[in-house]
């Protein structure tokens, strides 16, 4: 089975040098992958020509020309109404018309969600799509949703998030029965406002492997496989974690560059620091899934480098290969029927 993925090649801070090179790397690893690069054809071809190995994959590369690009400053409404020939929109259109199985974009998040929801629509039974991403932990990584698509979710919506997150982890990471935690201000059962308490009851009554409440620091301990939360809290957790990672990176560099002696220590410690960086680098966890849509859409960080953008392509490939959209639809229908 061939997995076809469209790449919004013009999206993100760096455009073609990152999106094209990442795509070539992905083609070298996934032999059943076919990529549709979407954007300015001349620019894409020029970038491809810089990497002669792309000719090895000619039968697995397609280019769709577009004349517009959605900027980071464009509002979702502007992107939706006035840029119908943008690389982002056309890349999503390719899912709708059946040309590809998934899409990856590093463009404007608000615009991506608005366009994807407008074109693809949501799976029956899904109130709102959610953004799911991963965080590094002491024992690997953890998945969190929603990371900002919804800022006032009902308990029923949070239950849907839990179901969707569980299905993705089952099928992309081979975890048969993922544990689910609900983000709260404490782990004690009596803590939390009414919405949290009502959500906990729904999760307890579901067929999910619900473990109970988790606190913010539990995210990085990796005490569960999936953490469910409203997008307001999720986005704060995401930005705070990225800020902490950047702060540590800055402080470590500053400490090692103080004088000649600390610079010598830095040389000796380089292997250890490289290992540390590989475990906490946000780029290694790049690729947030827009779950609940009738199609696989993955959002990359706008400032992703080649290795980071590859992670987003990998996530799109895995979800498309596992037919995540169909599985979410089936299990969500079953779960909702049981709660009638």
Verbal overview:
The chain is an alpha/beta fold. The protein has 2 domains: 1-126 and 292-323, Isopropylmalate Dehydrogenase; 127-288, Isopropylmalate Dehydrogenase. Helix content is 49%, strand content 17%. The chain has 12 helices and 11 strands. It has helices spanning 16-29, 41-49, 76-82, 87-96, 109-120, 155-172, 194-205, 216-221, 231-256, 260-280, 306-321, 324-338, and strands at 3-8, 33-39, 61-65, 102-105, 130-137, 140-145, 179-183, 209-214, 226-228, 288-291, 296-299. It has an 11-stranded mixed β-sheet, sandwiched between helices. Helix 1 (16-29) links the parallel strand 1 and strand 2 (33-39). Helix 1 (16-29) packs across helix 11, helix 4 packs parallel to helix 5 (109-120) and helix 6 (155-172) crosses helix 7 (194-205). The longest helix is centred in the last third of the chain and has 26 residues, at 231-256. It is globular, with a radius of gyration of 21 Å. The two termini are 38 Å apart. The mean pLDDT is 91.
Please sum up the structure shown.
The protein is of the alpha/beta class and 340 residues long. The chain is built from twelve helices and eleven strands.
- How many angstroms separate the termini? 38 Å
Oligomer: single chain
Low-confidence runs (pLDDT<50, min 5 residues)?
none
- Determine the structural class based on helices, strands and strand pairing: alpha/beta
Radius of gyration: 21 Å
* Portion in helices: 40-55%
CATH superfamily of the largest domain: Isopropylmalate Dehydrogenase
What is the fold's blueprint, element by element?
Layout: E1 3-8, H1 16-29, E2 33-39, H2 41-49, E3 61-65, H3 76-82, H4 87-96, E4 102-105, H5 109-120, E5 130-137, E6 140-145, H6 155-172, E7 179-183, H7 194-205, E8 209-214, H8 216-221, E9 226-228, H9 231-256, H10 260-280, E10 288-291, E11 296-299, H11 306-321, H12 324-338
Parallel strand pairs: 1-2, 1-4, 2-3, 4-11, 6-9, 7-8, 7-9
Antiparallel strand pairs: 5-6, 5-10, 10-11
Helix pairs in contact: 1-2, 1-11, 3-5, 4-5, 6-7, 6-12, 9-10
């Amino acid at each position: 089975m061939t997995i076809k993925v469209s790449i919004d090649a013009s999206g993100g801070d760096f455009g073609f040098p990152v999106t094209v090179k990442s795509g070539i790397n992905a083609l070298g690893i996934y032999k059943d992958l076919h990529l549709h690069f979407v954007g300015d054809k001349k620019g894409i071809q020029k970038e491809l020509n810089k990497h002669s190995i792309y000719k090895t994959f000619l039968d697995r590369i397609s280019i769709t020309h577009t004349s517009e690009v959605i900027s980071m400053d464009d509002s979702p409404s502007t992107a939706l109404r006035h840029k119908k020939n943008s690389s982002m929109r056309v890349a999503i259109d390719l899912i709708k018309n059946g040309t590809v199985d998934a899409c990856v974009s590093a463009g404007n998040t608000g615009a991506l969600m608005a366009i994807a929801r407008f074109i693809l629509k949501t799976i029956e039974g899904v109130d709102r799509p959610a953004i799911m991403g991963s965080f590094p932990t002491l024992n690997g990584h953890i998945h969190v949703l929603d990371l900002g698509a919804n800022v006032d979710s009902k308990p029923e919506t949070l239950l849907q998030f839990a179901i969707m997150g569980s299905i993705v982890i089952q099928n992309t990471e081979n975890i048969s029965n993922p544990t689910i935690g609900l983000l709260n201000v404490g782990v004690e059962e009596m803590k939390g406002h009414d919405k949290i308490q009502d959500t906990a009851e729904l999760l307890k009554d579901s067929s999910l492997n619900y473990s109970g409440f988790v606190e913010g620091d539990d995210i990085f301990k990796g005490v569960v496989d999936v953490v469910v939360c409203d997008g307001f809290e999720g986005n704060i957790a995401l930005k705070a974690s990225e800020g902490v990672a950047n702060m540590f990176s800055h402080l470590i560099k500053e400490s090692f560059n103080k004088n000649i002696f600390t610079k010598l220590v830095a040389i000796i410690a380089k292997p250890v620091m490289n290992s540390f960086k590989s475990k906490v680098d946000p780029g290694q966890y790049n690729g947030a899934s827009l779950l609940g849509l009738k199609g696989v859409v993955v959002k990359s960080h706008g400032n992703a480098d080649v290795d980071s953008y590859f992670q987003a392509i990998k996530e799109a490939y895995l979800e498309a290969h596992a037919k995540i959209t169909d599985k979410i639809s089936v299990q969500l229908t079953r779960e909702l029927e049981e709660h009638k």
